[in-house]
Amino acid sequence: MKHQIREFPAFKINGFIALSIVLALGIFGSWQVWSTIQRLIEVLGRSLRVGDFADLAEIGAWLGATLIAVVIPSLSGFFTVEPNQAIVLVFFGRYVGTVQEAGFWWTNPFTDKRKVSLRVRNFNSKILKVNDAQGSPIEIAAVIVWQVIEPAKSKFAVDDYEQFVAIQSETAIRALAIRYPYDAPDEQSIPSLRAVPDEIALFLQKELQARLEVAGVEVVEAKLSHLAYAPEIAQMMLRRQQAKAMIDARRQIVESAVGMVDEALKRISQQQMIDLDDERKAAMINNLLVVLTSEQNIQPVVNTGSLYT
């Protein structure tokens, strides 16, 4: 930036003390004006002398000038600050400080007072259609929780800090989608938007903080609120996910069945229940695998003869 904005507290005094002083000056000035008018009436009631009239006019002029120059402009110096609110002061185009303490205050009456809310706010981004790291079109949206922590920067570093937050948030969400795939075959080695939500939220928060720091904004939290494939490929991707889930389930079933068969053969051999040659072992393994991996109920076949007859 051409001019670096540095936040610092503004000059201020307690508003009730300043109000007491202004009221005292006003009462004193009014009393003086009233006394001057009474004296003027007395002079006009007697023989009018030019010197006495000039003295009274001079006193009245000074008192009037005091009321106009001190009391009346001082009234515009009073202001209140609500909790989680800040007042940025500008004196003839120059930033002269910020007041963040809640209460009733008085400051230079010729300063321009600009309010800035320090309350926590939510920004719900619209659903964006972008391509992920693998080039697949996806729909993505996020919820950004943010607040202003440096009011001077929010007022002078950017033109409209609320619009700046909205635009930069959408830009950061697009950068996030380009960096990660929606889904990955090996989720342990390749993080994806769907598999690691905590990592995604942390990356989005850091990305946003780097972009919004110039505006004096702190990102409290950032999380995805919507994540889906684009409608034109949603059905195809759903079938792929179903096929992958079915393959993974089959693999798990086969691995478990092989383990059970291996355990059964080992127990038969250890307990010497029966002596099996290679051919009988192969037949037993085949029957057990068919029973354990079949999706339908298996009807048993009673063999009354021998495997070799």
TrEMBL record:
Coiled coil: none annotated. Residues 76-245 form the Band domain. The keyword Transmembrane helix applies. The keyword Isomerase does not apply. It comes from the Bacteria. InterPro entries: Band_7, Band_7/SPFH_dom_sf. This is SPFH domain-containing protein.
